[in-house]
Design brief:
134 residues; mainly alpha
């Protein structure tokens, strides 16, 4: 699980660096600092938060459904999407879609798909280890 977490964190950092190279955002920089500090305390924290809050949207990410995420980020009066808006606001990873061109959006989604794959592998290993413990 440690190797998957290391790879997840590397890809996450690469994605954030890519985003910041194109879209200089103070909120993304701040969130990157917060995430870095969280990882210093618990290296598994970000992948576990990602599993909890982002992985349920794997189908939308894999389908590269940028319109879905842009619509959610713009639906401020819709209670149905409040949780995902808060999560996306926390991770800030899809908020940039409305600022990027199609090619850059595809790159962000490719990073996200890879992160989802690592998260799924991590979750499967964690469940396997848990079942062996019982």
């Amino acid at each position: 699980m440690e190797e998957i977490t290391i790879q997840f964190n590397k890809v996450f950092d690469l994605m954030v660096d890519f985003i910041l190279s194109i879209y200089d955002s103070r909120s993304i920089k701040l969130n990157k600092t917060i995430i870095d500090n969280m990882r210093k305390i618990n290296k598994y924290k970000i992948i576990e938060e990602y599993i909890l809050w982002i992985l349920p949207y794997y189908d939308k990410i894999k389908g590269q459904d940028e319109i879905y995420f842009i619509t959610i980020m713009n639906c401020t009066n819709n209670k149905e999407h409040e949780d995902i808006r808060q999560v996306l606001g926390y991770f800030k990873f899809l908020e940039v879609l409305k600022h990027f061109d199609e090619d850059n959006n595809k790159i962000v989604f490719e990073y996200q798909i890879l992160l989802c794959d690592y998260a799924i592998e991590y979750l499967n290993m964690k469940l396997h280890n848990h079942s062996n413990d019982t």
